[in-house]
Amino acid sequence: MSSLSTGPSIKALGKTRIGRIWLILVVATLFTWHFGSDTGDRSLATAVVIAVAFIKIRLVGNYFMEIREAPAALRCIFEGYCLFVCAMILGLYFLS
Amino acid sequence: MLARMNRPSPGSGRIELHLPGEVGIWVFVLGDMAIFALFFAAYMVDRSVAVELYNASQQALNRTFGVINTLLLLTSSLFVVSGVSALRAGRARVAQRLLLGAMLCGLGFAVAKVVEYGEKLGQDITPYTNGFYMYYFMLTGIHFLHLTIGMGVLVLMFRAARQRQVTDEGLAFVECGATYWHMVDLLWIVLFPLLYFVR
Amino acid sequence: MSAVISKKLDGASEHSGCCAAAAPEYQESMRRRQLLCNWSGPFFVVFFFIGLVLFMGFVPPQSPLASSQQIADIYLADLTSIRIGIVLCSYSVALMATWGAALAARTLRTEREFPVYTYTQIACVGVGVMVAVFCFLTWAVAAFRPDDVHPDITRMLNDVGWFLFLFDVAPFMVWMVAVGLAILGNRSSHRLMPRWVGYFSLWCAVGEAPAVLILFFKDGAFAFNGLVGFWLPLVAFFLWIMVLSVVLHQEIQRDAVPQAMAGRD
Which residue in A2, A26, A84 is closest to B71 by CB distance? Predict the structure, then answer.
């Protein structure tokens, strides 16, 4: 962890689980940027970008906020929230 | 409903169910997430009656700002996670430096946001321009308010990490603050594609 | 963290101090007095909504885009019913004072020497009652002679009423934050309320905050008939009153339990 404070290198980050999660999140963000800017099939791009966003918040919740290790009730509420809000956004998108 | 869970006692060897900080903070965090879910729904509903307008307006947004801000918040969250685990391991000095890093990323986010707002206002785009920009300014503005509160919380967390002896109570405060900061990150992760990419 | 809390609970049994020595009749009268004041919270909510929804028909609010004539017509169509609703609401909001006192009395016990959060609450409740009474007073004037004045005047009074209803959330937010901080910061030997109620109060304060946006928009979610301008602050405030009434009721009842048992969780 101290290597983080002195000078984070990608290699050092890859060694810790939390660092790997961060790398995945960064790659997902760059993917969103690239894929979301695509002018081809907008419906597909939107669906993918929103799905990726909810995968990202699940990673933030489970690993950064440590919901993964939390009591079942909180885990259920959080997963339910992700599922519900994702379905709501996509549902309203495709209905319009 | 949620029983208070204790941190696994050091050396117990097995990982027990636990929550960082205390259960109560989740009343606030989930409540806030519910409010933002309401915002997302309102945005999507109003968008559905003026799809063309929203799509055209969105083109004027500078996506680079959105990406930079997302990366800054993700990195600040990484700093906070590492800071909390350093503090748990009793390495207060490392934790302080990591929390400072998180604050710098938060500050970077604020600066980028102000520049982005300035760019829009410079093009005579305001919250009154149309429905899309009303949501763009209001949702990012309300999120910005959360970030500002979060910066204050980070300062308090830094102070708690600087105590000569970090108590259980101090650590619980830092963990609650970390949970709040991650929520600010989490909400932005949804706002970012919603405003910049849903077309 | 849990160690701190259990220590506090242990402390409660040995720190019965001033009150334990008092006669049981006195304690019983104190308990009843608190329960009475606490019940004024739910009564306030019930009569308020009967007045606002059933008699005045102001939920959902009129559109900020409505013309003066449309607003005047709304008043003229149901004048008596609106007047009865206004009277009901204007009486019920005064109950905020008694309920606020029941709440402040509990926090006072935990900060006997320097009751800053208690004073903050008292100040905010005072301002809050005044603002709420003025809100219905303004609508009362609008409903006084809408047949005789220009519709522009009726619409303006109607607008002022909604701004008094929604825009001045700040004292209510400070009230909620004061209660939240009093709960979360309680280091006295007395019970106050479960800690989640502290976080809940802070969340309600955040939920109230966007009501000020009604100044900027006449249409959409942030206007005074919108999801964020009207519904969110309304739900946050009345949910807060209801939830805290229930918790307060339980806390007041717990005082009657013999101290030795009250110490146990």
Answer: A26
CA within 13 Å, CB half, B129: 20
> Where would I find the H helices in chain C?
2-14, 17-20, 24-49, 68-77, 79-92, 95-110, 116-142, 151-162, 170-184, 195-208, 232-256, 259-262
Rounded to whole angstroms, what are the CA distances from A68 to A82, B4, B78?
Answer: 14, 16, 17
Chain A CB contacts of B3 under 8 Å are 71
- Tell me the average pLDDT across C132-155: 96
**CA-based R_g, chain B, Å:** 19
Between A and B, how many residue pairs show a Cβ–Cβ distance under 8 A?
A: 140
Distances (CA, A) of C236 to B31, B71, C241: 10, 33, 9
Nearest CA to C164 out of C132, C206, C128 is that of C132
pLDDT value at residue B146: 95
Q: What is the pLDDT of residue C22?
A: 73
Report in angstroms the alpha-carbon separations of A60 from A78, B111, B148, B190, C47: 11, 24, 20, 12, 44
- Structure pTM? 0.88
Q: Is the pLDDT of residue C15 over 90?
A: no
CA distance to A30, B175, C233, per residue, from A11 (Å) = 19, 27, 48
Percent of chain C with pLDDT over 70: 89
HSE at residue C254, side-chain half, CA atoms within 13 A, is 21
In the DSSP assignment, the letter for residue B129 is S
The ipTM of this complex is 0.87
Contact C222 B138 (CB under 8 A): yes
What are the C-alpha distances in Å from C178 to residues A86, C45, C121, C125?
36, 21, 6, 11
Number of residues in chain A: 96
C52/C71 Cα distance (integer angstroms): 16
Q: Whole-angstrom Cα distance, residue C21 to residue A96? A: 70
Q: How far apart are the first and last CA of chain C?
A: 15
Do the beta carbons of residue B24 and residue C209 sit within 8 Å? Answer: no
- Structure tokens that stand for C249 in this block: 């009721």
Chain C (211-250) residues lying within 8 Å, Cβ to Cβ, of chain B: 213, 216-217, 220-222, 227-228, 232
